Amino acid sequence: MKKEKQEKLNLWDKICKYTPQIAVFLPVVSFVAGGGFKLAWFLYKSGYYGYYNIEVKNILANDEIDIYKWICFGIATIFYFCYSILSVRRIISNKINILFWGVILNYIISLFFCIIVLKEITLVSFVTALILIPCNWVMIFSLGFCMAHNMQEDLINKNKIKKKKKVKRVLSKLKNKYKNTNTKQKREWVDRDYKVLGIILITASLILGGFFTYEEGVKTAKDKNSYGIVKIENISYAVIDVDEKEMVLQKCNIKNNEIVLFVKTYLKTDKNDKIINYINFEKGNIHRNYKAEQE
């Protein structure tokens, strides 16, 4: 118990040591984190709009991020960094509950991220969070071990000492056996090497996460079975996206509870209190037509 308390105190002392740096870099972290969330949201919307063959320049903003949200993103990122450090320390100390720390808590964090990006709690959020768990594992290793390697060195060195005692005899035998041979000594990794590895893994994880985010946008459009219908000059349009001021519409044809979307046509217009009638369709009754006009 005393050792555990001492380890927690050591970790807390290290975190407090970097408090001034955290305070200075909070605006930078907030800016980067907010930009990251905006990029994830843009990738998701790009996949969604791309399914309907609508150019990304027509994506509706839906919700502008103010200064308070940027700060919240920064604080959340710092907490995630601390969570990564603590998770890695528990893994190194062999004191981690894999089910809780590796799966449940990991899933909750991924779900939180998905809800922020998608701005709604839907089945897509829960499924996407499940898919992002492996990316989250890579991020935890990259941030908590590679980028914060100097904060983990006390536990790493302690484990090295334990392992060294166990293999000391084996190593001495190997040295005696190959003492007359020329062997190249392997260069030990230093803190800079781990940081480079961390940057590479973070980049790879972000790219993979971006790909999954884009694909989830496509999947959302494919699984959509409820469309708002608007009449403009006696022509039917399906509502693809809508916010408080504008709508993105696509010309459609409805017949016998089937809807045909003409994906080479779209219209971005003001909402102007237009009446939207929502209709549910079965998945097999939703079709895309690549002709420019209705037949």
What can you tell me about this protein's structure?
The chain is an alpha+beta fold. The chain folds into two domains: about 1-160 and about 190-220, no CATH class; about 225-290, no CATH class. The protein is about 60% helix and about 15% strand. The chain contains eight helices and seven strands, in the order ααααααααβββββββ. Strands 1, 2, 3, 4, 5, 6 and 7 form a seven-stranded mixed beta sheet that branches. The chain is elongated, with a radius of gyration of 27 Å. The model has no long low-confidence stretch (mean pLDDT about 75). Keywords: Coiled coil, Membrane, Transmembrane, Transmembrane helix.
Quick structural overview:
The protein is built from eight helices and seven strands, in the order ααααααααβββββββ. The chain has two domains: 193 residues, no CATH class; 65 residues, no CATH class. Keywords: Coiled coil, Membrane, Transmembrane, Transmembrane helix.
